[in-house]
Amino acid sequence: MAQVDGQTLLMAVQAVRAQIRLLSEEVNRAGDDDDLTDREDLLAGYVRAADALRVAYEAEERDSSNLPPYDLLASG
């Protein structure tokens, strides 16, 4: 796996979580006649990315005391 510093992981986690929120809102706001297949597929991809980033972030968090706990990021 590529080496990514903690600050970059922190920013990636925040960006992916923001995109998940936006896409979730779009899906939830859509009407019954809207075709959401592409949006739902994109949302699923971001959720998978968030899971992978969580694993990487938690590994980096164990090695660095400068990062906020992942749970704190996830609640924000």
TrEMBL record:
Pfam families: T6SS_Tsi2-like. This is Uncharacterized protein. It comes from Dyella thiooxydans.
